[in-house]
Each structure stands twice: as structure tokens, then as C-alpha cells.
Amino acid sequence: MAILYLSFGLCSVKVHLNNCWVSRVILVFCPWYCFQTTLPTEDTSCESVVTIGQHHIHACTFSRLLSIAEETLTEFLSKATGTAVEWVQMPGMKIIAISHGCIGVAARACGLVGLEPTRVAEILKDRPSWFRDCRAVDVVNVLPTTNGGTIELLYMQLYAPTTLAPARDFWLLRYTSVLEDGSLVICERSLKNTQNGPSMPPVQHFVRAELLPSGYLIRPCEGGGSIIHIVDHLDLEPWSVPEVLRPLYESSTVLAQKTTMAALRQLRQIAQEVSQTNVSNCGRRPAALRALSQRLSRGFNEALNGFTDEGWSVLGNDGMDDVTILVNSSPDKLMGLNLPFSNGFPAVTNAVLCAKASMLLQNVPPAILLRFLREHRSEWADNGIDAYSAAAIKVGPCSLPGSRVGGFGGQFLEVVKLESIAYSPEEAMMPRDIFLLQLCSGMDENAVGTCAELIFAPIDASFADDAPLLPSGFRIIPLDTGKEASSPNRTLDLASALEIGQAGNKGSNDSSASPGCVRSVMTIAFEFAFESHMQEHVASMARQYVRSIISSVQRVALALSPSNLGSLAGLRSPLGTPEAQTLARWIFQSYRVYLGVELLKSNNEAGGDSILKSLWHHSDAMMCCSLKALPVFTFANQAGLDMLETTLVALQDISLEKIFDDQGRKTLCTEFPQIMQQGFACLQGGICVSSMGRPISYERAVAWKVLNEEENAHCICFMFVNWSFV
């Protein structure tokens, strides 16, 4: 009997993914291929053939795949609901557990989502839509089983998170089936040569990692919705990366943050969207905003990894290897960039250049540094290069909102308007505004192991869903996941100043003096569209620009480091000074004068430093604003910074009126004269907003005039009692 064996091969194809055509190296099935098939051949006694679609599979091979699938199901269930892995609760996360003492890294979660099991399965199988590190999942073939389930052979690629490590890929079997109790199960594992199943040759530029039995157990709820159990268990081959990066590949906490929690967030976000028909303030539905954010993230990852199958090639360096330059002139990369300016000047580009680098940071939490880079762009960016980057994008009348346009899953999108810039002599008479679409993540989370990202791209006047994007930005990943600072707002703050400002009483190597100590790796990637004859000039410019940014980041990181607050590298002086102690004393004394009670019972006996410490750690949010026509904040305690979601460095950029809604502003206008005449006012509870745009409710607020030694008004202090994010 003639038997047609199923063979495997690699080819490069174009697939339509996320609204764009991308190149993929995938496994293909064909009767014979240019190299020897890797199907097992030791058992030739079986004469039957199984027909799957247009392909024929040797029955013995199919039997082995089914055996692997059933074994995978059993092992997955023992992890999801049993004790096959020793699980410990992840600190601060009741529904997340991480592994202890097992091979590789593993995380488990259990939660309720308001979606039906089949919809949950559909979302989870589309891994690139919710796992930003996933470049592609190519379904090579689908094999139905006699019990109504399916076996799928998958090839998956993951991006490398930095320039210092290679990307990962996986050759997988996925088994979908329904249990006797009606639960839907999706389980996966890597296929290896030792299992006598089909294998796949290595792919250039990728390290083959292993997915141990993992997956999703989805149980339907009686009233609708599903209870989902998630298990992720991987061996990411940490031997293949520099030792300093190995914590990223050996940490179950990092896996839980990046993968397990991301899956739950996606499910709950979509469930919320199904139950609500809301649109953002830019007129887009959440799904459209997620697609935009995914395009930004994907474009940044593609530039960062620089895969040859996407058209990237490396240019030679200039004698230093700190910055890597890549060039891409493939038509797909340039599609949509050559748009004419509305003023008649063409933007002709036929290539894209990426300058990228990575650096190790010490003793500054990622969230703090990224917040600073976002809120103080002028500290590191060059306006002329911003204008150059925008030159590839069509410019015209624009009515974009200069604020956040949507938030989801621990991240948010915003449109940032830069100052008017004249890029060319022709534009000098009419300088144009530049708008950036900006994706921010990891800036408002306390979770250990959270990656912080700031990714942005110039956008055109239409701000269309398919607008051309050339993403650039920063990614900071903590390396010491067990040593994260306790608060993400710990920057130029009173607590740090207090702990190191006692006339040098503590040594610099005292860990208690630097509670925010953490190592992290920052990766920078900037893209520029250019004409091919300008390649040498643009490459030189890009190198120098990235080196300048690295220098600025190092200076800012040094200033934000608690162990270096004494010098601050040229930034403002620390608050652990006599001036700060004086301000704290004025705040307490003025409160007693106007309200007739002590802010703290121990205030009478306290010295200046104790008052300052009490103010900083006060449970209610307290903040001072200036007595100007447009009052701005000048100081806040830790609770105040947490509430405003900002830092003391950026506090002065926030005006008082910006944090109140319309009703709050009306109330403030009514009560302000009373504050100035009577010295204080009690405000009813209401709603205000943080610097990140999140609504905040508070039970009540107290405002009082702060007097200096001459009993002149120095500022106004606000105290928000029992506040919480809505």
C-alpha cells in the first residue's frame, strides 16, 4: 500500500496580522521537501493512513501525538488543581501563585470572568493579542480527535525584551478537549525529539525554549461567565543570556507579571467592554485603542529585535559598539510613510533606520525613571530631532486631544502635543505643531517585576486607526525582582531625604538608607525614516542622539537614586533640609491655629525632624499649593504623591484646578475667599483626578492657610481624607 508521509519544512511567507503584512518563517507541510523529514520511522509495521484535510498522516505518528496530548492533559490538570508543583502565593496577589523549587519557572492563577468558555478559549488562543512579547503563533496543522477534541501543531516566536539577549521560539503541541463535567481545557507543551513526535530544525537568531505542560481550564458558571485556571510553566534556557540578565529568565514572579496576569487582564477588559458601550474621549472604542497600543508595542519590539526576515540589516559601527544601527528598506516597512505634506512639501523616504542600545541602571525603580522621562521630555529630547522624526508623516489641521485617550490593562494611551517647531527653512514662517501617540505602562503599579515602558510615535493629522507609525521609546525591566522598592513614588521625596540626611550618620552601603535599591536594564530604540543617499548622515545623527539620551538618563537616574540625593547631579536640592523642616512646622502650627486641634497628638513635643517625618507618613493626602493667580502644587506628602500619581520633581507642573472636576472647581471658587479670610474651610466629599487621569473619590477635604514666622500667608495646604481610586 502506498503511504504518503507528512513532511516538514521552513519557508518565508507573508501573513496579514494586526492590520499589516508581516514576514514569517513558518513550518509547512508538503509531500516531500528539500531536506529529510524528521518524522519517526522506527515503527514501519503500521499500514493504515489517517487523512487530515489535504494531508495524510501515518496512523502510528498520529497515535503518538494523541498519546502526548493525553499525557499533557493529565500533567496540566495536576498543576492547575493539584500539587504537582509546590505553589506559594505571590506577595500582594491573592489569585496568583508562583512555583517554588521546580524545573524552570511557573505561575498559576484562578479567576472569574464574565465571558462564556468558548469566547474565553478563543481569546486565549490568540496569544499575540494579549501577550506583547509574542511575535507570532503559526498554526501549522489541526488534527481532530475521535473524542471531539483537536490537536494543533504550533510554531511560536517570542521577542527578546532587550538588545542583550536572543529571542525565543517554541515548537508546540496544543490539545483542546472537553472534560466529562463540561469544562473546556486547552493544554500545551513543547515537542521534543525524545517523545518520538515530529520535530523542527532550529531557526536562525532564535533560542529554542521549552514549554512544560501548561494551559487553561475553563469551567462554565451557572449564571453565565467562566471560572478560569491558568498555568504557565516554561524553561527559558537562561544559560543563553548574560549572567546579569538571568533573573529575568529564572523568575516565576516575572513570568506571572508578563504572561499569567496579562491573560487575566485581557479577559476582564474584554468582558467589561461587552457589558459597556462606552467610547473614549477621542471617539474610539476600547478595542480600537487596544489595537493602536498593540501596533506601537509591536513596532517597538520589531525594531528592537531587528529580525532579518523583516528586512533589517546591521550597519558597521563607528569604532564604538555602544549603539547598534540597523537599516530597513523593505516595502512593507515603508508602506504608508511617503505621504505628502499639506503645504506641498513632499516627505520622500525609502528606508528606515533604528538606533538601539541597552544599559544597566542601579538603585532607581523603573516606574520612577519612566515617569520622569514622560513628564520632563525637555530633559532628554531634542526638538529638532522630534521635528525630523515627524517629517515622514503628513501634517495638516489637527484637532487631536492633548491628553489621555484611553487606559486599559495597566497601561494607557495619550496624545502629546510638542511645541511648534520649524524643521526646514520653508517652514520657518509657519512652524508646525508635532503630535505624538504615546503608550505608557508600568508607571502606576506597585507589583514586583513590572516592566515599565514609554513608547511613542509621531502621528498625522487624521489620527486614523491605520495611521503610519514609527515607534521609538524606552523599556526598563527590574532585575532584582525580590528587592523592589515598596512604593513606586519614591523619588526626590522626604522619606529618602530623612533617611540619608542626618549629617551623614549612615554609611553609603547601609541598605536601610536606600530602600529603593534595585538593578534594572534599560533598552532604548529610536526609528528614523530617511532617503537612502542620507544614510551615513542620519546614522551619525542617530548614534549621537542615542548617546546623548543615555548620558541624560544616567544623570537623571543618579539624581533619582536615594543614595545620591545629597548631590542630585544638578537637579533641585533635597527636601531633607532645614527649609523642609520649617515648612512642616508651619503646616502643623497653622492647622492648630485655625482649627483649634492638633494635626497629630504627639506634635507638641516633636522636634523639627520628627514633625517632618510625621507629615510625610501621615495617612491622609496632604499637599501645598502656591498663592498665585493659577495655583500650582509645591509640596505633597507620600500619600499626596500616591493620590496624584506623580513625583515631587513633577509636582510643580500640576495646577490646583486640574485635579478637580467641574463641580469641585465651582466649590473651590466659592470657598477660596473663606479660606483667605477665615483661614480654613471644610469641603464636602467629591471626585478629583490624578495626573494620570484616574478618578479619585474622597470623603472630605480640609484646606487651611499656612502662615510663616511673620504670620504672612505662605501657601495653602489641602488634606484629602479617606481617598481612594474609583
Question: Key features?
Answer:
DNA binding, eleven-stranded mixed sheet, transcription, differentiation, alpha+beta, lipid binding, 726 residues, 14 helices
Tell me about this structure.
Keywords: Differentiation, DNA-binding, Homeobox, Nucleus, Transcription, Transcription regulation. This is START domain-containing protein. Pfam families: MEKHLA (PF08670), START (PF01852). This protein has 14 helices and 30 strands. It is an alpha+beta fold. The strands form five sheets. Strands 5, 6, 7, 8, 9, 10, 11, 12, 13, 14 and 15 form an eleven-stranded mixed beta sheet that branches. Strands 16-17-18-24-23-22-21-20-19 form a nine-stranded antiparallel beta sheet, with helices on both faces. Strands 25, 26, 27, 28, 29 and 30 form a six-stranded antiparallel beta sheet that branches. A hairpin with a 2-residue loop joins strand 19 and strand 20. The longest helix has 26 residues, at 535-560. The chain is globular and about 95 Å long.
What's the topology here?
Layout: E1 7-17, E2 20-30, E3 49-52, E4 55-58, H1 59-80, E5 87-89, E6 96-99, E7 105-113, H2 117-125, E8 134-144, E9 150-158, E10 167-178, E11 184-190, E12 206-208, E13 210-211, E14 214-220, E15 226-235, H3 246-250, H4 252-275, H5 286-305, E16 312-314, E17 324-328, H6 331-334, E18 351-362, H7 366-375, H8 383-390, E19 404-408, E20 411-421, E21 432-441, E22 452-458, E23 472-478, H9 494-500, E24 519-530, H10 535-560, H11 578-595, H12 608-616, E25 621-625, E26 633-636, H13 638-644, H14 662-678, E27 680-689, E28 695-707, E29 713-721, E30 724-725
Parallel strand pairs: 10-12
Antiparallel strand pairs: 1-2, 3-4, 5-6, 6-7, 7-15, 8-9, 9-10, 10-11, 11-14, 13-15, 14-15, 16-17, 17-18, 18-24, 19-20, 20-21, 21-22, 22-23, 23-24, 25-26, 25-29, 27-28, 28-29, 28-30
Helix pairs in contact: 7-10, 11-12
